[in-house]
Amino acid sequence: MAMLGKAVRMSRLVNPKSNKMMAITVDHAISRGIAPMKGLQPIQDTINKIVAGRPNAMTMTKGIAEHCMWEHAGETSILLKCSSYSPVHPTKDIAFGTVDEAIRMGADAVSIGAMTLGDFQDVQFEEIGRFSEECMRKGMPLIGHVYPKGESVPKDQQTAWENIAYCCRSAAELGIDIIKTTYTGDPDTMAKVVDCCPARVVIQGGDACKTLDDYLNMTREAMDCGVGGVTMGRFVWDYPDITALVIALRYIIHEGYSVKEAKELLAQLENDKNYDQF
User: Fold this and answer.
1) Do residues 160 and 195 lie in contact, with contact meaning Cβ atoms separated by under 8 Å?
2) Where in the sequence is the domain holding 244, given as residue range(s)?
3) DSSP string of 10-41?
4) Do 256 and 59 meet the contact criterion of CB atoms below 8 Å apart?
5) What is the pLDDT along the chain (278 residues), one digit of tens a residue?
6) Which DSSP letter does residue 116 get?
7) Overall domain count for the chain
8) Is residue 229 classed exposed, middle or buried when 0-12, 13-18 and 19+ CB atoms within 10 A define those classes?
9) CA 202 – CA 67 distance, rounded (Å)
10) Active-site positions, per UniProt (predicted)?
11) Active-site residue 147, yes or no?
12) CA dist., res. 63 & res. 70, Å (int)
């Protein structure tokens, strides 16, 4: 029964045509501070614009879900973020949510994080192990935000494929179903990461990306090399037309659009605002 529940929830997260997942995250305030996150300061308006673009899911904390998702019940899946690091503890995720809360709130997955190869990997992995067992028992998919950003990893090695692969394989071995991590920077090395990991690997928006072209090119490359989807945040909700960008990304991920086609669609949407036609 529990395994059927997990399969049902996973089916709502992954597009059957593309076999990819597209999620947008709005869980950044605890980890990074709210003052720099201008796109999240009017949070209800931002969530409304994201949902209008019809992603598969959104990652958020329980408080934001309770305040902001009533009018969107059933429109997009909730991925309940149950842990976070903070500006003063950037390598240590602490849990503040539970699997039972996710079930009560109608979430389709639980999401927790870990910074590997650092001083707190042991306690974070222990926590993931507990969540994994409970999620399996209760039929809830488990998503891990796992990055090689521990104290032992120099900043210029945080996108090295060996370190990203270690994150993904470790997460899979701990029982995580969907692993959110960093793109290595090129499709060949990212394909190696995917080959190392039997669980679904999805990428974040990318700390190295600065422009629209950067994000669109990274997304297209990632889909082509076998990555199982995206969970993007900051660039999306800082973009002037959030809904248009969500739709353009969705067409890259699920419809196989090229970067050129996606940019043309984006320009048309920004001009005509006919979001409901896509």
Assistant:
1) no
2) 2-277
3) HHHHS-TTT--EEEEE---HHHH-STT-GGGT
4) no
5) 468 999 999 999 999 999 999 999 999 999 999 998 898 999 999 999 999 999 999 999 999 999 999 999 999 999 999 999 999 999 999 999 999 999 999 999 999 999 999 999 999 999 999 999 999 999 999 999 999 999 999 999 999 999 999 999 999 999 999 999 999 999 999 999 999 999 999 999 877 788 999 999 999 999 999 999 999 999 999 999 999 999 999 999 999 999 999 999 999 999 999 999 99
6) -
7) 1
8) buried
9) 27
10) 147 (proton donor), 180 (schiff-base intermediate with dihydroxyacetone-p)
11) yes
12) 12
Cβ atoms of 170 and 146 within 8 Å: the answer is yes
**Catalytically annotated residue among 6, 180, 183, 215:** 180
Helix (H, G, I), strand (E, B) or coil at 115: strand
Q: Which of 122-131's residues contact partners 24+ apart within 8 Å by CB, and which partners?
A: 123/92, 124/92, 124/93, 125/170, 125/174, 127/83, 127/93, 127/95, 128/171, 128/174, 128/175, 128/176, 129/174, 129/175, 131/82, 131/95, 131/99
Give the pLDDT confidence score for residue 3 in this predicted structure.
82
Say which DSSP state 117 is in: S
Question: Would you say 239 and 225 are in contact if contact means Cβ atoms under 8 Å apart?
Answer: no
CATH code for position 250:
3.20.20.70
